[in-house]
Amino acid sequence: FAGIDDPVVKMANTYFKFKQFTVHQEGSAMKVCTDACIQGAFTATYIRNSLPGVQEILDIGTGTGLLSLMLAQQCSARIDAVELDETAAAQAAENFVASPWSGRLRMIREDVRSFSPAGRYPFIITNPPFYENDLKSSDHQRNAAMHATTLDFEALLAAVRRLLTEDGQFSVMLEHKGFQRFRQLAEAGGFTLRVLLEVHPSVGREAFRSVGVFGGEGALTTEQLVIHDQHQQYTPEFISLLKPYYLYL
Fold it and tell me: How many CB atoms lie within 10 A of CB 55?
């Protein structure tokens, strides 16, 4: 479900223009897409409303830098973005420098499994590879981005556990089926699902993406977001969520 094909925000394939920043993406295997934008906007809103005091955020596997840029627009935290792929990391760094928040965004080209910052982070966001055992394409860079070829769910959770403060929280987005497995692993490791957003492509269709915020003990809040109504127009809820970012909304 690619945002780059969205008629409301369609741009040249090499870049994607938002209201306050532009994401150049020719160097990244994973382009700007609607579901990633939903995670970024939903998480930014959650931090602004529920965790306004957060001063440091880590973005694991930043790709183009999209999620870091979306969070930077709505909160004042300093954001470190880690990316293993050399080309994608260079692209994200350029996007950060060109943004209004360049002083709060830091690109770190490193494997998160060996990343050793001076301190831990109170909030982490990640849009990890979706598929662990599915068939892969011939595009090795895209495989690494879409499939858990270098960082499976267990390794990701181990990194999050090592890098998150004791009372910290983290946001993750996965396809619906993969999220169920990830949730089981996270809860077995001591994390609690605090907020769940189930994303439906249109009215009457099943959820195809899940965004979860995990942390310590607490009651679970579940929300639903439908992207398109029965006339294939954006729903009011989708417009409200993405209006701070998307052009022409």
Answer: 11
